[in-house]
Amino acid sequence: MCHSYISLDRDNLAGEHLCCAISDKKHQDGVELKKAWLSERIPEGHVFRKLDARGKVFIEYAPLETAWVPVTGDNFFFIYCFWVSGSFKNKGHGKSLLAYCIEDARKHGRSGVCVISSKKKKPYLTDKKYMLKYGFEVVDAIGDYELLALSFDGQKPTFSESARRQAIEAKELTIYYSRQCPCILDCVRQVERYCSERHIPLNLIQVDSLEKAKAVPGVFNNYAVFYQGRFLTLQLLNEGHLKKVLAQNCDKIV
């Protein structure tokens, strides 16, 4: 089966959709922020490759040295997001996109490819079982979160020391977030509104530089939630998810 894919660049970025926020109007402000962020990252070697169709079929990766994640290592590519959904599943798209990334890494003389996953499948993270089929292995772990890598030369990346802290001094609900997912802005707005209406202390920390991303005190892919001083989740929180998190992690249901 012949598939047609395109990679975003500064020339086509404005006119192309971003797959995970195609028609949902509440995410359009987030789409514009993501496109601005991508425009800054593409010259650094950031790749956003997708199926040339109206669907959620894409892979997004970058050189680990410039990837906004608390992961360190020499000469790897880091996969931010890898997604095939709906009617596009089971048609070879995942295999094709991952093969492109791996071949791109080899072509650029990289030591391999890595990605954050988890022991059990979690929302917003690449599925571990799928990656293991293509030669990836667990090279580091923090709690339930795992760093997977396909190494060409035996080298292995690791989570940064800051990520291993998994804790902060502040006890209030604290969310680290970046602009690299178009869904984040609406989630931040929902959380901010909910907490304001109920007088729940909230600390929002925008990760707006590579240095800040590398130093986040917990596992971070583009979003990280802390409550009562400890790391809780990478999952984006809308109002509904926030209610569950607060109910599960405090003495009374908010």
From TrEMBL:
Source organism, top-level taxon: Bacteria
Keywords on record: Transferase
SUPFAM superfamilies per the UniProt record, alphabetical: Acyl-CoA N-acyltransferases (Nat) (SSF55729)
A molecular function (GO) term: acyltransferase activity, transferring groups other than amino-acyl groups
Domain called YoaP-like: residue spans: 201-244
Pfam families named in the record: Acetyltransf_1, YoaP
InterPro entries the record matches: Acyl_CoA_acyltransferase, GNAT_dom, YoaP-like_dom
Domain N-acetyltransferase: 43-109
KW Cell inner membrane (keyword) present: no
Protein's name in the database: Acetyltransferase (GNAT) family protein
Organism for this UniProt entry: Thermoclostridium caenicola
